[in-house]
Design a protein that fits this description.
This protein is an alpha+beta fold. It is built from 18 helices and 11 strands. Helix 2 packs across helix 5 and helix 14 runs antiparallel to helix 15. It starts with 7 loop residues before the first helix and ends in a 7-residue tail after the last helix.
Length: about 600
């Protein structure tokens, strides 16, 4: 059964209690967003997710998108939901007030994104892609383009996309063939085809703004010859309303494993008018502004689906009766006990819970850094925050989506045979979550980015933004006390991370394949240490709150219990990661390719 209530208490905890000492300082520009105000936003977002988006999640999956007389149609209820979403101001939540946005902190915006994706991830892609596109336009486009397009996109009247992939090339964008021919009026004629374009066409808005990678006639070969162009579906008229069709069409809707209510399109551009965003042949720089924004958001998608899957599994484990508890019947009034009494079911539920709470805590830590990078009045703090965001972006994208998919699969397993059939609704979570590990750069690409680019950058400066707070926490909280077991476990995992970092640096300088062979295990190791750090901090805060007394004891007791499970059952995976990294590439690359 699909059930979803936003985990507001845990959201308030990570927002208002967990990361107050993160080193990013106070942000006067965000001072007006008090806990009372942000709590009201979260409450209303939770209501919208539960009452508007959740009811059309399964029906949208079953109906899917389709083309009707050349027009892409979204499933029943989506147009009405999007109108309500836009009229409620949700599209403008974190956007710059200069363009009509509300300017809320990214810490709040990411929690709202989690709710949207937990209730209906397919719906979330339409405004989600737009947010990324506005970020790129705002950062790189000429003022004339910003004035013409950003207010409409921020208000949600128009949506946006990113058009990268072509049928003959995926991640290797240096092979793309889409052409851009300069015109006398300063515009360009864009011709080419793109595939896998999320929200590429639909009936939710009157115009769609595409950010398209293409090549100028004299462009250098490879990625150094790629430029970025803004290409609207309809050319705005003098009054700003959509006018003439612009040679942009959807050739087909992809038939996908999941996300069926999100229109993933094959898009054709036929002498379409576009305008340059950023400098010629510097399109990758501009596009990466959008991609990095989207990579954090995709991580949040994984978390959102994981939370929904966990809630569905808990509901079922309480309702389904089967067998008796090994320690004696717990519900003698029933023919059997609910399956939540069984240790293996508890293992699955606690694993899901720990993944979700750990990822939410790490995600909020990164979101605080995004806010500091944008709003701090101290240049050193802004640089420190930017370094941390750069380091953690691939971790958020890959770790959260790996765990989101694993959580969805655990939900199916909790349901048993009923999880495998469509009637239960949980198999949709597994199908929907699977793509998050692939798009915006596969998780293997994220690991290569972490090891190949982020670790060596500026002589390891980015890594210090993570190592220093973790090391300081271990030093301050070592010795005796209730946290000792957790701190000891964190120290051991952190030691494995430090040794692995040195090993990769040493081997990678001699042989790049050694670093690449270690990349996925290293990303998982770094992510687990980040979660361990957050759980240890959470347990410390929870213990202090329990000592003070109060009405919220159950929440803090549960937080300590979840942290204890993480340290007992999940953090030990760091030892396996370390051993795999230490083994090197030999066995991985030892088989001749002809033998496969």
């Amino acid at each position: 059964m699909q059930v979803y209530d936003a985990p507001l208490r845990d959201m308030r905890f990570v927002l208002n209690e967990l990361h107050q000492d993160d080193g990013f300082g106070d942000l006067p520009a965000l001072a007006e967003f008090t806990p009372d105000l942000t709590d009201a936003v979260l409450e209303e977002a939770a209501r919208f997710a539960r009452e508007v988006l959740l009811p059309i999640n399964r029906s949208g999956d079953e109906e899917g998108c389709h083309i009707d007389n050349g027009i892409v149609r979204t499933p029943a209820g989506f147009r009405e939901a999007y109108s309500a979403f836009r009229e409620g101001g949700w599209t403008a939540l974190a956007a710059d007030p200069e363009w009509g946005g509300q300017g809320l902190p990214e810490t709040v915006n990411k929690l709202v994104e989690e709710m949207i994706c937990g209730a209906n991830i397919s719906f979330g892609l339409y405004p989600g892609l737009t947010h990324g596109a506005t970020t790129a336009i705002e950062s790189h486009a000429a003022d004339e383009l910003k004035q013409a397009y950003l207010p409409k996109m921020v208000s949600g009247e128009w949506t946006g996309t990113m058009c990268l992939t072509e049928a003959h090339c995926g991640t290797d964008l240096g092979l793309l063939r889409t052409k851009a021919v300069p015109q006398a009026d300063g515009s360009y004629r864009i011709t080419g085809s793109k595939i896998f374009i999320s929200a590429g066409d639909h009936d939710l808005t009157e115009n769609i703004i595409h950010l398209v990678l293409a090549r100028l006639p004299d462009a250098p070969r490879g990625v150094k010859g790629i430029s970025l162009f803004l290409v609207p579906k309809y050319l705005p008229g003098a009054d700003g309303t959509p006018g003439q069709a612009n040679g942009v069409s959807c050739a087909n809707i992809e038939h996908k494993m999941g996300l069926k209510a999100s229109a993933t399109c094959q898009m054709n551009f036929e002498d379409s008018t576009g305008w340059l965003v950023g400098a010629p042949n510097k399109g990758m720089e501009a596009m990466f502004t959008m991609m990095n924004t989207e990579r954090v958001s995709v991580g949040v998608q994984g978390l959102g689906v994981g939370e929904a899957a966990y809630q569905a599994a808990v509901w079922y484990a309480r309702e389904r009766i089967q067998g008796r508890s090994l320690s004696g019947p717990k519900r003698p009034d029933l023919a059997a006990d609910p399956i939540i009494v069984h240790p293996d079911v508890r293992r699955m539920l606690m694993t899901m819970r720990a993944y979700n709470e750990g990822c939410r805590a790490v995600g909020n830590w990164v979101s605080r850094a995004i806010d500091a990078e944008r709003h701090s009045e101290d240049a050193e703090v802004r640089q420190h925050a930017a370094d941390f965001v750069a380091l953690m972006t691939p971790v958020v994208k890959a770790l959260f989506t790996d765990y989101g998919f694993e959580t969805a699969n655990l939900a199916v397993q909790t349901y048993g045979g009923h999880g495998y059939i469509r009637e239960s609704g949980v198999e949709q979570y597994a199908r929907d979550a699977r793509i998050t590990m692939i798009y915006e750069g596969t998780n293997g690409i994220q690991a290569l980015d972490l090891v190949g680019r982020k670790l060596p950058a500026n002589m390891g400066r980015l890594l210090r933004t993570f190592f220093h707070p973790v090391s300081a926490f271990i030093e301050e909280n070592g010795g005796e006390g209730p946290l000792k077991r957790m701190v000891d476990g964190l120290q051991q995992a952190f030691g494995a991370l430090q040794l692995s970092t040195a090993k990769i640096a040493e081997k990678g300088m001699k042989d790049p394949e050694e670093a690449a062979a270690a990349a996925t295990d290293y990303l998982r190791l770094l992510g687990l240490v980040a979660m361990g750090y957050c759980f240890a901090k959470a347990a410390k805060i929870a213990a202090a709150k329990l000592a003070e007394g109060g009405d919220d004891a159950a929440f803090y007791q549960a937080k300590i219990a979840t942290a204890a499970f993480f340290f007992d059952r999940i953090l030990p995976q760091t030892s396996a990661c370390f051993l795999a990294i230490k083994a090197g590439k030999k066995s991985m690359m030892g088989l001749d390719e002809a033998a496969f």
